[in-house]
Design a protein that fits this description.
The complex is a heterodimer of chains A (about 290) and B (about 650).
Chain A: E1 3-6, H1 8-11, H2 16-28, E2 33-35, H3 44-47, H4 52-69, E3 72-75, H5 78-92, H6 96-105, E4 115-117, H7 118-134, E5 143-147, H8 156-159, H9 169-176, E6 180-181, H10 200-216, E7 221-224, H11 227-235, H12 237-244, E8 252-254, H13 255-262, H14 280-285
Helix pairs in contact in A: 2-13, 4-5, 4-6, 7-9, 10-12
Chain B: E1 4-9, H1 13-16, H2 21-28, E2 34-40, H3 46-58, E3 63-68, H4 71-84, E4 92-96, H5 108-128, E5 135-138, E6 143-146, H6 150-161, E7 166-169, E8 184-185, E9 190-191, H7 192-205, E10 209-212, E11 215-223, E12 226-233, H8 248-252, E13 256-258, E14 267-269, E15 271-272, E16 284-285, H9 291-295, H10 300-304, E17 317-323, E18 325-328, E19 333-334, E20 351-353, H11 354-361, E21 382-389, H12 405-419, E22 424-429, H13 439-448, E23 452-456, E24 459-465, E25 468-475, E26 480-486, E27 488-493, E28 495-496, H14 501-508, E29 535-537, H15 547-565, E30 569-572, E31 577-579, H16 589-593, E32 599-605, E33 611-618, E34 638-640, H17 645-656
Parallel strand pairs in B: 1-2, 1-3, 3-4, 6-7, 6-18, 7-10, 18-29, 20-27, 21-22, 21-27, 22-23
Antiparallel strand pairs in B: 5-30, 8-9, 11-12, 12-17, 13-14, 15-16, 19-28, 24-25, 25-26, 31-34, 32-33
Helix pairs in contact in B: 2-5, 3-4, 5-17, 6-7, 6-15, 11-12, 12-13
Classes of the chains: A alpha/beta (about 290), B alpha/beta (about 650).
Chain lengths: ~290, ~650
């Protein structure tokens, strides 16, 4: 295992707790994962709708950065993951697109590296058994709805993440930490983050449905892996509660924060205090903190 | 010395307009070996044929060339005439100066010259032709039907009605197939059991039908008219002759498992008959769940059996039957809910297949027709039916239409509304395909009189929200997304080729398509035949079909079987491949390319009976004379009679004027 960590722009701006907890887990588990020296923004959700070549070129530059570091790529943000996988696919076949992209980058770039999401690396490479061994502070009886969001599993043939209708990676990881994953039908339903600015009502409706369904299936909190989902479910939860006149009070934590808790890492290092829906009362009531 | 006659046909103006037929006849006289030539307006007419017959006798002809239409058209006619005049029919050849000349050319000079060339080629060939004899094959006057569903039952009954004995082989322990599990049937709503059971009884009691249940085909050898099938009678652990079907054993058996017949909605015992009307009404032991056979405990059935019919040491038994023809009516299976993760993948008890719904409403079903949803027994007030689940979905599942779902969904909405008068039922559909007799009227009745609400669009997701099932989909007529809360969802899942069908097809030497459905010889003109002579197809083994079509095909296949077995011997054209055993090296190229499995290796032994070498050997019963083998032979040791190298080279040389 030798990966270069590609944090993406969210982890370095709106989601610093994802970045911090990722680095904390890498450190705690002694994984050979180092942040790529020269990664670039993938263009996020805007560039690919404007200029496909330039958009792909950005991700190719990140692939090149991995080559320079002689590492495979570990990604945390599902959008970044999709974009570097797409770039890798473009480089793997002869097309006009490929030559345009390489011209924009200005050099030949190999794309032989593996690209995986951090959760897949923990689940498939590090392994659930080893995770179980590391648990010091089990998340006993904590009922968690794992919410994967729409991007990590779509399109399935590109992402190759898990069962696109019912992914289990986070559920298994959290279960290894002693938690009780909740089986619920909205694991990969879209939260509408893409319309959160342009058409907030749509996004609020969709997010409300997700929160409601999680709660109705017995969840006490939600585990996420996507910075945009986290933002939408956590930041807007108060507004949703007002809009629908319903108390939800579901803390929305990154799976890395939950793993960190189980490994006994410091809650402030895990930046639990940065969440909008306060997780401390729940975690205290469960005896986890 | 060859004495060849050339007969040039005008075909009215069909040939004569573009070919100077008199000139062709005239020039033909100068071809060496031709002793007689004539042209005539319609050579195929009675006077035309008389002309040929008389000339054969008068001029003592040894060969005949008829320059007229395609051999496909009239070769048989003229060969019959030649035969009547005492000439071996294979000493007559056709020069096709119509389809391959007059119809495709405009210029009279060129057309005439080409016709002369074609005649010269055939004259050179026929000079080298050798008389051939038709092959006569004895026939076993007995048929085998594989599959005891309604299609196979119909085929067996019709064959037996023609006086021909039938062996009906069924994989399950009872005949009856899928139809025995249905409630009422479209478009007349008559009870499935009520119309099927009499047929089951009839076939069971027919003196010419032997039912071999809980059995599968192990091996098939032989060829048309002369098949030898090895049938594996699977271990039943019950002596069907001693057993009286009293039922004591299955009443006392302590093991309860999900019933396949009830589609998992009800239970059966480890010793069981699948349903009360089963034929034969003899149980079998399910070896995977029987306590005696798995753990050597219990043994109750043996103790209570009044006729000592239980034998725990029963083994598979192999029997051989010789038959002249075979009907394959192996039916279908339907996709399970678990194949559709977007619809819950089987985790929701209240998402059922249409076959499960049949059992839920059927008076003989696990709830005796009292409609209860599986999860909590509640009466479903709202039901959503989803069509084309797995069908017409080439991206994920099957590209084909399962054909019967439109009709049975309309029927099921009616069955539902007849049970729950105030209930709501919604049908998600792509199209409504109701092209059968009284079918469209039936669907209209469901929509207009029986209250089924049809929504055009596909369903994207099905999930559980509290006690309700939620169906999310698109309404493509109003262009809106919709959610329907309901108590029960019925998926009209695709019909698929049954398990093991490819292995069976390989054993029988018949073709199947990419979906596993068996392939007919011609989709329009030979719909119940296979490419292997003597093996016929019927029903859903070919592709999804409804009951009327399946039954018609069962009868159709039976008619083919009776046509075949009505004669004592089969006459076959003498045009078959033949091997020169002196030069054949046994490389097996011909065996590999033969589409009909008509070639095998044969041992060549010395006088002491020791095998010296192996050579190819053609079974003339199976050979269709297709000629695929001849170009595959590196040593030119296999030839097609009637198209031997010497004959074909003579034709080509004649054209090249060598």
């Amino acid at each position: 295992m030798k990966y270069g960590y590609y944090p993406g722009c969210s982890a370095k701006s709106t989601a610093p707790e994802l970045d911090a907890t990722t680095l904390a887990l890498i450190d705690f588990l002694h994984l050979d994962i180092k942040e790529l020296k020269d990664w670039v923004c993938c263009g996020a959700s805007s560039l690919h709708s404007v200029d496909k070549v330039l958009h792909t070129a950005l991700s190719v530059m990140t692939l090149d950065a991995a080559n320079a570091d002689e590492r495979d790529i570990m990604v945390q943000c599902p959008a970044c993951l999709a974009h570097v996988l797409e770039a890798k696919e473009v480089l793997s076949e002869d097309s006009a697109m490929k030559s345009d992209v390489l011209e924009a980058v200005g050099k030949q770039v190999d794309a032989k590296m593996k690209i995986h999401h951090f959760s897949s690396i923990l689940h498939d490479e590090y392994g659930l058994d080893k995770i179980r061994e590391k648990v010091k502070n089990p998340l006993d009886s904590l009922k968690i709805a794992s919410y994967y969001g729409c991007l990590i599993v779509r399109p399935p043939e590109l992402m190759q993440y898990d069962d696109p209708e019912n992914p289990m990676v986070m559920d298994n990881l959290l279960s290894a930490c002693g938690a009780e994953p909740v089986q619920w039908p909205f694991k990969t339903k879209c939260c509408g983050a893409g319309t959160a600015i342009s058409d907030t009502d749509v996004s609020l409706d969709l997010t409300y449905e997700i929160l409601r369904m999680a709660r109705n299936n017995g969840a006490e909190c939600i585990a996420v892996l996507c910075p945009l989902c986290q933002n939408n479910l956590d930041l807007r939860q108060k507004k949703i509660e007002q809009r629908y006149g319903e108390k939800l009070n579901l803390p929305v934590l990154y799976y890395t924060q939950l793993l960190g808790l189980a490994f006994g890492l410091d809650p402030i290092m895990l930046q639990l205090n940065r969440l909008f829906v306060d997780p401390f009362p729940l975690l205290k009531s469960k005896g986890i903190l | 010395m060859a004495r060849i006659g050339v007969f040039v046909c005008w075909c009215g103006s069909n040939i004569a307009e573009t070919v100077d037929v008199s000139k062709v006849a005239e020039v033909s006289k100068s071809i060496p070996g031709v002793v007689y030539s004539v042209d005539y307006k319609y050579m195929c007419s009675d006077p035309g044929q008389e002309l040929v017959k008389n000339a054969i006798k008068e001029h003592n002809l040894t060969g005949v060339v008829v320059a007229s239409c395609s051999p496909r058209m009239h070769e048989k006619t003229f060969r019959k005439a030649a035969s009547d005049a005492g000439l071996n029919p294979y000493m007559l050849e056709m020069a096709n100066i119509r389809e391959q000349c007059s119809w495709v050319h405009n210029d009279m000079d060129e057309g005439t010259q080409k016709s002369i060339d074609l005649v010269r080629m055939m004259v050179e060939k026929v000079k080298r032709n050798k008389p051939l004899e038709d092959i006569s094959i004895p026939v076993t006057k007995k048929a085998m039907v594989i599959g005891g569903g309604v299609t196979g039952i119909q085929a067996a009954l019709d064959i037996a009605a023609g006086g021909i004995p039938v062996v009906l082989v069924e994989k399950e322990s009872s005949i009856g197939g899928k139809m025995s599990a249905l409630d009422e049937t479209f478009p007349t709503l008559d009870c499935s059991q009520c119309i099927l059971t009499p047929k089951m009884v009839e076939v069971a009691q027919h003196p010419l039908v032997e039912i071999i249940s809980y059995a599968e085909i192990e091996k098939l050898e032989g060829f048309i008219g002369n098949f030898k099938a090895t049938i594996r009678k699977k271990a039943r652990y019950v002596d069907v002759d001693a057993c009286t079907g009293c039922g004591t054993c299955w009443q006392k058996c302590p093991v309860k498992v999900d019933s396949e017949f009830e589609q998992g909605l009800g239970k059966r015992k480890a010793i069981f008959i699948p349903f009360p009307q089963a034929i034969p009404s003899r149980p079998r032991i399910d070896a995977e769940n029987c306590l005696k056979l798995t753990k050597d405990r219990c043994g109750i059935c043996e103790k209570v059996c009044p006729t000592k019919a239980i034998h725990y040491d029963d083994k598979d038994e192999f029997i051989e039957v010789e038959v002249g023809a075979i009907v394959v009516a192996t039916g279908y299976k339907i996709m399970p809910v678990s194949a559709f993760p977007e619809y819950g993948g089987g985790q929701y008890l209240d998402v059922v297949t249409s076959l499960q719904f049949e059992r839920m409403v059927c008076a003989s079903g696990p709830t005796l027709g009292d409609l209860k949803r599986p999860s909590d027994g509640k009466l479903p007030e709202t039901v959503v039916f989803v069509k084309c689940v797995g069908s017409r979905d080439p991206e994920h599942h099957h590209s084909y239409c399962s054909k019967i779902c439109c009709m049975y969904v309309a029927k099921q909405t009616m069955l539902y509304r007849h049970k729950v008068h105030h209930g709501n039922c919604y049908v998600f559909y792509i199209d409504v395909r109701s092209n059968g007799k009284n079918y469209e009227e039936f669907v209209r009745r469901a929509q207009e009189k029986e209250g089924a609400q049809y929504i055009r669009g596909r369903v994207s997701a099905i999930y559980k929200d509290g006690d309700d099932m939620v169906v999310e989909g698109a309404d493509t007529l109003t262009n809106s997304q919709i959610k329907v809360k309901c108590d029960l969802v019925v998926l009209a899942t695709a019909m698929e080729a049954p398990d093991g069908i490819k292995e069976l097809a390989q054993k029988l030497g018949i073709g199947y398509d990419q979906h596993g459905f068996l392939t007919e010889a011609h989709p329009k003109l030979r719909p119940v035949e296979t490419a292997t002579a003597g093996i016929f197809l019927a029903g859903c083994a070919l592709s999804p079909r409804d009951i009327p079509d399946s039954v018609s095909e069962g009868s159709g296949a039976a008619a083919k079987v009776m046509g075949l077995l009505s004669k004592d011997t089969l006459e076959k054209e003498g045009v078959v491949a033949i091997v020169n055993e002196l030069t054949c090296v046994g490389c097996q190229n011909c065996i590999r390319v033969c589409p009909y499995n008509a070639i095998e290796l044969k041992d060549i032994c010395n006088r002491q009976g020791e095998v010296q070498r192996q050579v190819a050997n053609v079974n003339p019963g199976l050979c269709t004379g297709c000629g695929t083998c001849t170009p595959s032979c590196p040593s030119r040791s296999i030839e097609l009679l009637g198209f031997r190298d010497t004959e074909l080279y003579a034709e080509i040389n004649a054209l090249a004027e060598l």
